[in-house]
Structure formats: structure tokens, C-alpha cells
Write a structure and sequence with these properties.
Layout lengths: L1 E7 L4 H13 L2 E6 L12 E9 L2 E2 L1 H9 L6 E7 L5 H11 L2 H6 L2 E4 L3 E2 L6 H11 L5 E2 L3 H12 L3
Parallel strand pairs: 1-2, 1-3, 3-5, 5-6
Antiparallel strand pairs: 3-4, 7-8
Bound molecules: flavin mononucleotide (FMN).
The site of flavin mononucleotide has 23 residues, from helix 1, strand 3, strand 7 and helix 5.
Length: 158
């Protein structure tokens, strides 16, 4: 199985989740950061798309990529990285992050949590995070079990 994991990350946590996912998917798995441009996915039979969520929205480069990418016939997994705690709101963020036709095609999709990294944030982001999340400390909510479960359902080994 040849797999491409394509991600959109601002402060590195979606990238870190994607990196951890590669070892769990195994086989021939390649990482692509959308900040480096749009990859050619034609050689890959399986594709994972992952994006960070800011203010309820996926990153704009993932949104733009989803508008043009052709994935028919491929096994597809979708994930979002965010710090929303309410399961209903997490589900809404996931539902809004990718177009309907890709969600319909997806073999698996998940909200994979994230991190608050104050050292990576700009002043406005620190202010918003302190106000909304009521913390000024780094928080690491990356859920390794959820990453493993996502990889297993993608590869059909669950
Ligand atoms: C200014 C700001 C706004 C955010 N808004 C949301 C949000 O609406 N929903 C959510 O689930 N997470 C939100 N987050 C949390 C980020 O999604 C989380 O920090 C994530 O790990 C960032 O991923 P990245 O490092 O790949 O950019 C926000 C974080 C910041 C700093």
C-alpha cells in the first residue's frame, strides 16, 4: 500500500500528528506539507488529508486543495486537529472541514485533538487562547490511541 498524508499546519501540531501516523500506517507512506505546494497524488492508492482548525475553520490552503484534488478510486482518510472540547462542536468542525463528496468517500475520519503551544503563537493568538481556553500554559492533548485507531481503520487492521 502506498500512502500519502497531506497536511495543513500553522504551528506544527497537525504536522506532528501526521508524522506519528506514518509509523502506524506503515508500508510506503509519504508526508506532504501543503505549505510546500500541492503534491501529485496519482502514484498513491491511499490518501490522508489533515488540517488544523482555527476559529472553527480548516486552514485555507487545505480548503483550496480540496476544491481541485482528484481522489476518485483511492482509499481516503480525513482528520482535523483542534482543541475544541465539546464532542458536538468537534463533529461540526470535522463536518465543515472537508467537502461533502470527500466525506462520503472517506473510509475513516476523526477529530484528533491538538496542542496549545504559546511559544509558537503570535500576540493575538495568545490573547484569544487565554480568553477562550482560560490557560496561559502549553497544553498537549494529542491522543496517540486515537491516531492508532485512525490508522487501523484506514489500513483495515482494526
Ligand atoms: C487563535 C486560535 C484559535 C483556535 N481556534 C480553534 C477552534 O475554533 N477550534 C478548535 O478545535 N481548535 C482551535 N484552536 C486550537 C488549534 O486548532 C490547535 O492549537 C492545533 O493544535 C493547531 O494545529 P497546528 O499547530 O497544526 O496549526 C485554536 C488555536 C488558536 C491559537
Amino acid at each position: 500500500m502506498s500512502t500519502a498524508i497531506v497536511y495543513a499546519s500553522k504551528h506544527g501540531t497537525t504536522a506532528e500528528i501526521a508524522r506519528r501516523m506514518t509509523t502506524r500506517i506503515g508500508g510506503n507512506t509519504t508526508l506532504f506539507d501543503l505549505a510546500d505546494g500541492s503534491p501529485d497524488l496519482s502514484p498513491y492508492s491511499t490518501v490522508v488529508l489533515g488540517t488544523a482548525i482555527y476559529a472553527g475553520q480548516p486552514k485555507s490552503d487545505m480548503k483550496a486543495f480540496c476544491r481541485t484534488v482528484k481522489l476518485s478510486g483511492k482509499r481516503l482518510g480525513l482528520f482535523v486537529c483542534g482543541m475544541e472540547q465539546d464532542p458536538a462542536k468537534q463533529a461540526t468542525e470535522l463536518a465543515n472541514a472537508f467537502p461533502k463528496h470527500l466525506r462520503k468517500q472517506a473510509a475513516t475520519e476523526a477529530f484528533l485533538a491538538g496542542r496549545f503551544l504559546f511559544s509558537a503563537m503570535n500576540l493575538a493568538e495568545r490573547f484569544i487562547t487565554k480568553r477562550i481556553a482560560k490557560t496561559s500554559q502549553d497544553v498537549d492533548s494529542i491522543d496517540d490511541d486515537a491516531i492508532t485507531a485512525f490508522a487501523s481503520s484506514l489500513t483495515g487492521t482494526e
